[in-house]
Fold this protein.
Amino acid sequence: MSPFRRFALALPVAGLLLTALAGTQSPPAQAQARMEQPRQGFDHARREVMIPMRDGVKLYTVILVPAGAKGAPILLTRTPYDAKALTSHAASSSMGRALEGYDNPMDVVVQDGYIRVIQDIRGKYNSEGEYLMTRPLRGALNPTAVDHATDTYDTIDWLVKNLPESNGKVGILGISYDGFLTLMALFDPHPALKAAVPMNPMVDGWRGDDWFHNGAFRQQMMPYIYEQEMTRGNDEKWWTTHYDDYDLYLRAGSAGELGRQRGMERLEFWQKLVEHPAYDGFWRGQAMDQLLAAQPLTVPTLLVHGLWDQEDIYGAPAVYRVLEPKDTGNDRVFLAVGPWFHGQQIQEASSLSVVRFHADTARTFRQEILRPFLARHLKDGAPKADIPPVAAFETGTNTWRRLSAWPAGCESGCSIEPTPMYLRAGGQLGFQAPRTGDAAFDEYVSDPAKPVPYRARPIQPVGYE
Protein backbone atom coordinates (compact mmCIF):
# COMPACT_ATOMS: atom_id res chain seq x y z
CA MET A 1 0.00 0.00 0.00
CA SER A 2 1.27 3.45 -0.85
CA PRO A 3 -0.64 6.21 0.97
CA PHE A 4 0.40 9.00 -1.39
CA ARG A 5 -1.61 7.29 -4.08
CA ARG A 6 -4.79 8.15 -2.26
CA PHE A 7 -4.19 11.80 -3.05
CA ALA A 8 -3.45 11.41 -6.76
CA LEU A 9 -5.10 14.19 -8.75
CA ALA A 10 -7.04 13.11 -11.80
CA LEU A 11 -6.38 15.69 -14.50
CA PRO A 12 -8.01 15.30 -17.92
CA VAL A 13 -5.77 14.23 -20.77
CA ALA A 14 -7.09 14.76 -24.27
CA GLY A 15 -7.19 11.51 -26.18
CA LEU A 16 -9.37 9.03 -27.93
CA LEU A 17 -12.24 7.25 -26.25
CA LEU A 18 -13.06 3.87 -27.71
CA THR A 19 -15.52 2.71 -25.12
CA ALA A 20 -17.01 4.46 -22.12
CA LEU A 21 -18.36 2.76 -19.06
CA ALA A 22 -20.68 -0.17 -19.55
CA GLY A 23 -24.11 0.81 -20.77
CA THR A 24 -23.20 4.25 -22.13
CA GLN A 25 -21.67 3.40 -25.52
CA SER A 26 -20.99 0.41 -27.75
CA PRO A 27 -19.99 -2.78 -25.94
CA PRO A 28 -16.25 -3.52 -25.87
CA ALA A 29 -16.38 -6.35 -28.41
CA GLN A 30 -17.78 -3.96 -31.04
CA ALA A 31 -15.58 -1.02 -30.17
CA GLN A 32 -12.27 -2.78 -30.76
CA ALA A 33 -12.52 -2.57 -34.55
CA ARG A 34 -12.08 1.21 -34.40
CA MET A 35 -8.34 1.89 -34.06
CA GLU A 36 -8.10 5.66 -34.27
CA GLN A 37 -4.80 7.46 -34.74
CA PRO A 38 -3.47 10.01 -32.23
CA ARG A 39 -4.96 13.49 -32.32
CA GLN A 40 -2.93 16.14 -34.10
CA GLY A 41 0.08 17.07 -32.01
CA PHE A 42 -0.24 14.05 -29.71
CA ASP A 43 2.51 11.44 -29.58
CA HIS A 44 0.08 8.72 -28.51
CA ALA A 45 -3.49 7.47 -28.78
CA ARG A 46 -5.56 7.03 -25.64
CA ARG A 47 -8.16 4.28 -25.50
CA GLU A 48 -10.53 3.57 -22.63
CA VAL A 49 -12.17 0.16 -22.78
CA MET A 50 -14.17 -2.20 -20.59
CA ILE A 51 -12.54 -5.64 -20.76
CA PRO A 52 -14.87 -8.57 -19.98
CA MET A 53 -13.84 -11.18 -17.42
CA ARG A 54 -14.93 -14.82 -17.47
CA ASP A 55 -17.78 -14.14 -15.02
CA GLY A 56 -19.18 -11.27 -17.10
CA VAL A 57 -17.76 -8.43 -14.97
CA LYS A 58 -16.07 -5.71 -17.06
CA LEU A 59 -12.92 -3.93 -15.93
CA TYR A 60 -12.10 -0.37 -16.91
CA THR A 61 -8.78 -0.22 -18.73
CA VAL A 62 -6.75 2.69 -20.12
CA ILE A 63 -4.47 1.94 -23.07
CA LEU A 64 -1.85 4.42 -24.27
CA VAL A 65 -0.42 3.49 -27.68
CA PRO A 66 2.65 5.39 -28.96
CA ALA A 67 2.12 7.04 -32.34
CA GLY A 68 3.26 4.77 -35.16
CA ALA A 69 3.62 1.75 -32.87
CA LYS A 70 4.13 -1.55 -34.66
CA GLY A 71 5.21 -4.78 -33.01
CA ALA A 72 5.34 -3.01 -29.64
CA PRO A 73 5.29 -4.91 -26.35
CA ILE A 74 2.61 -4.27 -23.74
CA LEU A 75 3.41 -3.13 -20.20
CA LEU A 76 0.47 -3.76 -17.85
CA THR A 77 -0.31 -2.53 -14.34
CA ARG A 78 -3.44 -3.50 -12.42
CA THR A 79 -4.40 -1.19 -9.59
CA PRO A 80 -7.00 -0.19 -6.98
CA TYR A 81 -5.81 3.44 -7.27
CA ASP A 82 -7.70 4.84 -10.29
CA ALA A 83 -6.39 3.98 -13.75
CA LYS A 84 -7.70 7.24 -15.17
CA ALA A 85 -5.67 9.29 -12.68
CA LEU A 86 -2.52 7.19 -13.12
CA THR A 87 -2.58 7.85 -16.86
CA SER A 88 -3.47 11.54 -16.49
CA HIS A 89 -0.74 13.00 -14.30
CA ALA A 90 -0.61 16.01 -16.64
CA ALA A 91 -2.96 17.47 -19.24
CA SER A 92 -0.49 17.06 -22.06
CA SER A 93 -0.14 15.76 -25.60
CA SER A 94 3.03 14.01 -24.39
CA MET A 95 2.70 10.40 -23.28
CA GLY A 96 5.65 10.88 -20.95
CA ARG A 97 4.04 13.84 -19.20
CA ALA A 98 0.76 11.98 -18.83
CA LEU A 99 2.59 9.07 -17.18
CA GLU A 100 5.06 11.05 -15.06
CA GLY A 101 4.12 9.89 -11.57
CA TYR A 102 2.91 6.86 -9.71
CA ASP A 103 2.97 3.88 -10.85
CA ASN A 104 5.04 4.52 -13.95
CA PRO A 105 8.75 4.09 -14.72
CA MET A 106 8.04 6.78 -17.30
CA ASP A 107 11.48 7.07 -18.88
CA VAL A 108 11.66 3.34 -19.65
CA VAL A 109 8.11 3.23 -21.03
CA VAL A 110 8.71 6.14 -23.40
CA GLN A 111 12.27 5.31 -24.45
CA ASP A 112 11.44 1.78 -25.54
CA GLY A 113 8.02 2.44 -27.04
CA TYR A 114 5.85 0.28 -24.80
CA ILE A 115 2.09 0.20 -25.07
CA ARG A 116 1.13 1.25 -21.54
CA VAL A 117 -1.96 -0.37 -20.04
CA ILE A 118 -3.38 0.41 -16.59
CA GLN A 119 -6.54 -1.25 -15.30
CA ASP A 120 -8.85 -0.69 -12.33
CA ILE A 121 -9.29 -3.97 -10.48
CA ARG A 122 -12.80 -5.22 -9.89
CA GLY A 123 -14.88 -3.09 -7.58
CA LYS A 124 -12.69 0.03 -7.71
CA TYR A 125 -13.26 3.32 -9.51
CA ASN A 126 -14.63 2.69 -13.02
CA SER A 127 -14.58 -1.11 -12.97
CA GLU A 128 -17.59 -3.28 -12.29
CA GLY A 129 -17.82 -5.99 -9.65
CA GLU A 130 -17.29 -6.20 -5.91
CA TYR A 131 -14.12 -4.99 -4.22
CA LEU A 132 -12.36 -7.13 -1.64
CA MET A 133 -9.10 -5.91 -0.11
CA THR A 134 -6.20 -8.06 -1.38
CA ARG A 135 -8.64 -10.64 -2.70
CA PRO A 136 -7.22 -14.14 -1.97
CA LEU A 137 -6.75 -16.84 -4.57
CA ARG A 138 -9.70 -19.10 -5.30
CA GLY A 139 -10.00 -21.68 -2.56
CA ALA A 140 -10.82 -21.80 1.14
CA LEU A 141 -10.57 -18.01 1.58
CA ASN A 142 -12.26 -17.21 -1.74
CA PRO A 143 -15.09 -19.57 -2.72
CA THR A 144 -15.83 -17.70 -5.98
CA ALA A 145 -14.63 -18.69 -9.45
CA VAL A 146 -12.50 -15.57 -9.93
CA ASP A 147 -9.48 -13.91 -8.37
CA HIS A 148 -6.72 -11.55 -9.45
CA ALA A 149 -4.94 -14.39 -11.24
CA THR A 150 -7.95 -15.13 -13.45
CA ASP A 151 -8.64 -11.43 -14.03
CA THR A 152 -5.03 -10.91 -15.13
CA TYR A 153 -5.21 -13.91 -17.45
CA ASP A 154 -8.44 -12.69 -19.03
CA THR A 155 -7.06 -9.16 -19.41
CA ILE A 156 -3.88 -10.33 -21.13
CA ASP A 157 -5.88 -12.62 -23.38
CA TRP A 158 -8.03 -9.69 -24.50
CA LEU A 159 -5.06 -7.36 -25.00
CA VAL A 160 -3.06 -9.64 -27.27
CA LYS A 161 -6.15 -10.33 -29.38
CA ASN A 162 -7.30 -6.71 -29.69
CA LEU A 163 -4.17 -4.57 -29.99
CA PRO A 164 -2.85 -4.97 -33.54
CA GLU A 165 0.05 -2.63 -32.74
CA SER A 166 1.51 -5.13 -30.25
CA ASN A 167 3.93 -8.02 -30.71
CA GLY A 168 1.83 -10.23 -28.46
CA LYS A 169 4.23 -10.06 -25.51
CA VAL A 170 3.12 -8.69 -22.16
CA GLY A 171 5.03 -7.60 -19.07
CA ILE A 172 3.40 -6.70 -15.78
CA LEU A 173 4.77 -4.43 -13.06
CA GLY A 174 3.54 -2.59 -10.00
CA ILE A 175 4.48 -1.14 -6.63
CA SER A 176 3.05 -2.15 -3.24
CA TYR A 177 -0.59 -3.25 -3.69
CA ASP A 178 0.09 -3.19 -7.43
CA GLY A 179 3.16 -5.33 -6.68
CA PHE A 180 0.89 -7.84 -4.94
CA LEU A 181 -1.27 -7.85 -8.07
CA THR A 182 1.87 -8.44 -10.15
CA LEU A 183 2.67 -11.53 -8.08
CA MET A 184 -0.89 -12.75 -8.56
CA ALA A 185 -0.21 -12.89 -12.30
CA LEU A 186 2.34 -15.67 -11.67
CA PHE A 187 -0.35 -18.19 -10.72
CA ASP A 188 -1.35 -20.13 -13.86
CA PRO A 189 0.02 -17.31 -16.02
CA HIS A 190 -1.13 -16.52 -19.54
CA PRO A 191 1.35 -17.78 -22.18
CA ALA A 192 1.80 -14.20 -23.44
CA LEU A 193 3.08 -13.04 -20.03
CA LYS A 194 6.84 -12.86 -20.55
CA ALA A 195 8.10 -10.74 -17.63
CA ALA A 196 7.00 -9.64 -14.15
CA VAL A 197 8.41 -6.84 -11.98
CA PRO A 198 6.90 -6.82 -8.46
CA MET A 199 8.24 -3.72 -6.67
CA ASN A 200 7.92 -3.51 -2.87
CA PRO A 201 5.05 -6.01 -3.08
CA MET A 202 2.58 -6.73 -0.29
CA VAL A 203 3.34 -10.37 0.51
CA ASP A 204 2.44 -11.23 4.10
CA GLY A 205 0.18 -8.71 5.81
CA TRP A 206 0.88 -10.04 9.30
CA ARG A 207 4.60 -10.70 9.29
CA GLY A 208 5.82 -7.46 7.85
CA ASP A 209 3.73 -5.81 5.16
CA ASP A 210 1.21 -3.04 5.75
CA TRP A 211 -1.31 -4.26 8.33
CA PHE A 212 0.92 -5.80 10.99
CA HIS A 213 4.66 -5.87 11.55
CA ASN A 214 5.24 -9.24 13.21
CA GLY A 215 1.94 -8.94 15.02
CA ALA A 216 2.14 -5.25 15.93
CA PHE A 217 -0.88 -3.61 14.34
CA ARG A 218 -0.09 -0.44 12.40
CA GLN A 219 -2.83 1.91 13.56
CA GLN A 220 -1.94 4.45 10.91
CA MET A 221 -3.33 2.07 8.30
CA MET A 222 -6.85 2.75 9.55
CA PRO A 223 -7.49 5.81 7.32
CA TYR A 224 -6.34 3.82 4.30
CA ILE A 225 -8.65 0.90 5.10
CA TYR A 226 -11.55 3.26 5.73
CA GLU A 227 -11.21 5.18 2.47
CA GLN A 228 -10.30 2.16 0.34
CA GLU A 229 -13.28 0.08 1.40
CA MET A 230 -15.99 2.61 2.18
CA THR A 231 -16.75 3.56 -1.44
CA ARG A 232 -15.80 2.46 -4.94
CA GLY A 233 -14.08 5.75 -5.74
CA ASN A 234 -12.53 6.55 -2.34
CA ASP A 235 -15.00 9.44 -2.06
CA GLU A 236 -15.63 9.19 1.67
CA LYS A 237 -12.62 10.53 3.55
CA TRP A 238 -11.22 9.84 7.00
CA TRP A 239 -11.62 12.96 9.10
CA THR A 240 -9.42 14.65 11.68
CA THR A 241 -10.59 15.51 15.19
CA HIS A 242 -7.39 16.08 17.17
CA TYR A 243 -4.12 17.99 17.04
CA ASP A 244 -2.42 15.06 15.32
CA ASP A 245 -2.61 11.31 14.84
CA TYR A 246 -0.81 10.59 18.10
CA ASP A 247 -3.50 12.36 20.11
CA LEU A 248 -6.24 10.72 18.04
CA TYR A 249 -5.09 7.17 18.78
CA LEU A 250 -4.17 7.94 22.39
CA ARG A 251 -7.59 9.41 23.19
CA ALA A 252 -9.42 6.50 21.53
CA GLY A 253 -7.67 4.03 23.82
CA SER A 254 -7.42 1.24 21.25
CA ALA A 255 -7.64 0.66 17.53
CA GLY A 256 -10.78 -1.40 18.06
CA GLU A 257 -12.51 1.42 19.89
CA LEU A 258 -11.49 3.96 17.25
CA GLY A 259 -12.83 1.63 14.58
CA ARG A 260 -16.16 1.45 16.40
CA GLN A 261 -16.28 5.23 16.71
CA ARG A 262 -15.74 5.56 12.96
CA GLY A 263 -18.28 2.89 11.96
CA MET A 264 -15.71 0.50 10.55
CA GLU A 265 -17.55 -2.62 11.69
CA ARG A 266 -19.42 -2.54 8.36
CA LEU A 267 -16.16 -2.92 6.41
CA GLU A 268 -15.43 -6.56 5.60
CA PHE A 269 -11.65 -6.31 5.72
CA TRP A 270 -11.69 -4.43 9.02
CA GLN A 271 -13.80 -7.24 10.46
CA LYS A 272 -11.16 -9.72 9.30
CA LEU A 273 -8.37 -7.75 10.97
CA VAL A 274 -10.28 -7.68 14.26
CA GLU A 275 -11.06 -11.40 14.04
CA HIS A 276 -7.49 -12.47 13.20
CA PRO A 277 -4.94 -10.64 15.39
CA ALA A 278 -2.71 -13.75 15.55
CA TYR A 279 -0.84 -15.51 12.75
CA ASP A 280 -3.44 -18.10 11.88
CA GLY A 281 -4.74 -19.81 8.76
CA PHE A 282 -6.28 -16.59 7.50
CA TRP A 283 -2.85 -15.01 7.11
CA ARG A 284 -0.90 -18.13 6.15
CA GLY A 285 -3.52 -18.95 3.53
CA GLN A 286 -2.83 -15.75 1.60
CA ALA A 287 0.89 -15.24 2.28
CA MET A 288 2.24 -14.86 -1.24
CA ASP A 289 5.68 -16.28 -0.49
CA GLN A 290 4.17 -19.48 0.92
CA LEU A 291 1.75 -19.80 -1.99
CA LEU A 292 4.41 -19.16 -4.63
CA ALA A 293 6.68 -21.75 -3.03
CA ALA A 294 4.23 -24.39 -4.26
CA GLN A 295 4.09 -23.03 -7.83
CA PRO A 296 6.33 -23.78 -10.80
CA LEU A 297 8.48 -20.89 -11.99
CA THR A 298 7.68 -20.03 -15.61
CA VAL A 299 7.80 -16.22 -15.90
CA PRO A 300 11.11 -14.30 -15.61
CA THR A 301 10.72 -12.12 -12.53
CA LEU A 302 12.63 -9.08 -11.29
CA LEU A 303 11.89 -8.38 -7.62
CA VAL A 304 12.60 -4.85 -6.40
CA HIS A 305 13.32 -4.07 -2.74
CA GLY A 306 13.93 -0.83 -0.84
CA LEU A 307 16.32 -1.00 2.10
CA TRP A 308 14.31 1.68 3.92
CA ASP A 309 10.83 0.65 2.85
CA GLN A 310 8.63 1.75 5.73
CA GLU A 311 5.61 -0.25 4.58
CA ASP A 312 6.49 -3.46 2.72
CA ILE A 313 10.01 -4.31 3.80
CA TYR A 314 9.23 -8.01 4.22
CA GLY A 315 7.82 -8.89 0.82
CA ALA A 316 10.43 -8.87 -1.94
CA PRO A 317 13.21 -10.73 -0.04
CA ALA A 318 10.67 -13.29 1.19
CA VAL A 319 9.50 -14.06 -2.35
CA TYR A 320 13.11 -14.18 -3.57
CA ARG A 321 13.94 -16.80 -0.92
CA VAL A 322 11.25 -19.18 -2.20
CA LEU A 323 11.69 -18.55 -5.94
CA GLU A 324 15.48 -18.54 -6.20
CA PRO A 325 15.90 -22.31 -5.54
CA LYS A 326 13.58 -22.97 -8.50
CA ASP A 327 15.86 -20.96 -10.81
CA THR A 328 18.31 -23.74 -11.61
CA GLY A 329 19.68 -21.85 -14.60
CA ASN A 330 20.12 -18.65 -12.60
CA ASP A 331 18.36 -16.74 -15.38
CA ARG A 332 14.72 -16.34 -14.30
CA VAL A 333 14.75 -14.77 -10.84
CA PHE A 334 16.42 -11.42 -10.29
CA LEU A 335 16.57 -9.12 -7.28
CA ALA A 336 17.38 -5.41 -7.17
CA VAL A 337 18.06 -3.89 -3.74
CA GLY A 338 18.28 -0.11 -3.54
CA PRO A 339 18.60 2.58 -0.83
CA TRP A 340 15.00 3.69 -1.15
CA PHE A 341 11.85 4.38 0.78
CA HIS A 342 8.62 2.82 -0.44
CA GLY A 343 8.33 3.28 -4.20
CA GLN A 344 11.29 5.65 -4.53
CA GLN A 345 12.77 3.65 -7.41
CA ILE A 346 10.49 5.44 -9.90
CA GLN A 347 11.35 8.87 -8.46
CA GLU A 348 14.54 10.86 -8.02
CA ALA A 349 16.79 9.04 -5.54
CA SER A 350 20.15 10.72 -5.14
CA SER A 351 19.45 10.98 -1.43
CA LEU A 352 17.42 9.60 1.43
CA SER A 353 16.58 12.59 3.59
CA VAL A 354 19.98 14.08 4.53
CA VAL A 355 21.98 11.03 3.37
CA ARG A 356 23.37 11.61 -0.13
CA PHE A 357 24.54 8.92 -2.54
CA HIS A 358 26.32 11.12 -5.13
CA ALA A 359 24.13 9.79 -7.95
CA ASP A 360 20.47 9.17 -8.76
CA THR A 361 20.29 5.54 -7.65
CA ALA A 362 16.74 5.13 -8.96
CA ARG A 363 17.70 6.28 -12.45
CA THR A 364 20.63 3.86 -12.44
CA PHE A 365 18.24 1.06 -11.51
CA ARG A 366 15.74 1.97 -14.20
CA GLN A 367 18.28 2.42 -16.99
CA GLU A 368 20.79 -0.33 -16.19
CA ILE A 369 18.59 -3.01 -14.60
CA LEU A 370 14.88 -2.54 -15.28
CA ARG A 371 15.19 -1.35 -18.87
CA PRO A 372 17.42 -4.19 -20.17
CA PHE A 373 15.41 -6.77 -18.21
CA LEU A 374 12.14 -5.72 -19.82
CA ALA A 375 13.69 -5.35 -23.26
CA ARG A 376 15.26 -8.81 -23.13
CA HIS A 377 11.96 -10.51 -22.44
CA LEU A 378 9.49 -8.27 -24.26
CA LYS A 379 11.15 -6.71 -27.30
CA ASP A 380 11.67 -8.78 -30.43
CA GLY A 381 15.34 -9.39 -31.19
CA ALA A 382 16.65 -7.73 -28.03
CA PRO A 383 20.10 -8.86 -26.85
CA LYS A 384 20.54 -10.83 -23.65
CA ALA A 385 20.39 -8.50 -20.67
CA ASP A 386 23.73 -8.00 -18.91
CA ILE A 387 22.28 -7.84 -15.43
CA PRO A 388 23.40 -9.95 -12.47
CA PRO A 389 21.06 -12.26 -10.56
CA VAL A 390 21.26 -9.74 -7.71
CA ALA A 391 22.10 -6.05 -7.98
CA ALA A 392 22.48 -4.48 -4.53
CA PHE A 393 23.43 -0.93 -3.63
CA GLU A 394 26.05 -0.78 -0.88
CA THR A 395 25.65 2.35 1.20
CA GLY A 396 28.82 3.92 2.56
CA THR A 397 30.82 3.03 -0.54
CA ASN A 398 27.79 4.12 -2.63
CA THR A 399 28.41 1.31 -5.08
CA TRP A 400 26.14 -1.07 -6.96
CA ARG A 401 27.35 -4.64 -6.32
CA ARG A 402 26.83 -7.48 -8.80
CA LEU A 403 26.04 -10.62 -6.80
CA SER A 404 25.17 -14.20 -7.67
CA ALA A 405 22.67 -14.55 -4.82
CA TRP A 406 21.25 -12.79 -1.77
CA PRO A 407 22.57 -12.44 0.79
CA ALA A 408 26.15 -12.54 -0.47
CA GLY A 409 29.41 -10.83 0.37
CA CYS A 410 30.85 -10.57 -3.14
CA GLU A 411 30.12 -11.56 -6.73
CA SER A 412 31.74 -14.99 -6.34
CA GLY A 413 34.17 -16.98 -4.25
CA CYS A 414 33.18 -15.85 -0.78
CA SER A 415 30.76 -17.03 1.85
CA ILE A 416 28.86 -15.30 4.60
CA GLU A 417 27.57 -16.43 7.96
CA PRO A 418 24.85 -14.78 10.05
CA THR A 419 26.31 -12.95 13.04
CA PRO A 420 24.08 -12.78 16.13
CA MET A 421 23.67 -9.53 18.04
CA TYR A 422 22.54 -9.31 21.64
CA LEU A 423 20.52 -6.83 23.66
CA ARG A 424 22.45 -5.94 26.79
CA ALA A 425 21.77 -4.04 29.98
CA GLY A 426 21.92 -0.28 29.92
CA GLY A 427 20.33 0.03 26.51
CA GLN A 428 23.34 -1.48 24.78
CA LEU A 429 23.63 -3.73 21.73
CA GLY A 430 26.65 -5.91 21.01
CA PHE A 431 28.10 -9.01 19.38
CA GLN A 432 29.17 -10.63 22.65
CA ALA A 433 26.72 -13.05 24.26
CA PRO A 434 25.63 -12.26 27.83
CA ARG A 435 27.85 -13.80 30.49
CA THR A 436 26.90 -15.50 33.72
CA GLY A 437 26.19 -12.85 36.29
CA ASP A 438 25.10 -10.20 33.78
CA ALA A 439 21.76 -8.54 34.41
CA ALA A 440 18.99 -10.92 33.36
CA PHE A 441 16.78 -8.14 32.05
CA ASP A 442 16.45 -4.40 31.66
CA GLU A 443 13.32 -2.37 32.26
CA TYR A 444 11.87 1.06 31.70
CA VAL A 445 8.56 2.83 32.09
CA SER A 446 6.57 3.47 28.93
CA ASP A 447 4.07 6.29 29.43
CA PRO A 448 1.96 7.06 26.33
CA ALA A 449 1.08 10.43 27.85
CA LYS A 450 4.77 11.34 27.67
CA PRO A 451 5.81 10.05 24.26
CA VAL A 452 9.26 9.96 22.77
CA PRO A 453 8.21 10.12 19.11
CA TYR A 454 10.58 9.33 16.27
CA ARG A 455 8.68 11.72 14.02
CA ALA A 456 8.24 15.43 14.55
CA ARG A 457 4.86 16.49 15.84
CA PRO A 458 2.22 17.16 14.67
CA ILE A 459 2.32 13.55 13.49
CA GLN A 460 0.36 13.22 10.26
CA PRO A 461 -0.75 10.15 8.28
CA VAL A 462 1.97 8.02 6.73
CA GLY A 463 3.79 9.97 4.05
CA TYR A 464 7.08 10.51 2.31
CA GLU A 465 8.21 14.00 3.28
Confidence is low (pLDDT under 50) at residues 3-34. Residues 220-226+233-283 form a domain with the alpha-amino acid ester hydrolase ( Helical cap domain) fold (CATH 1.10.3020.10).
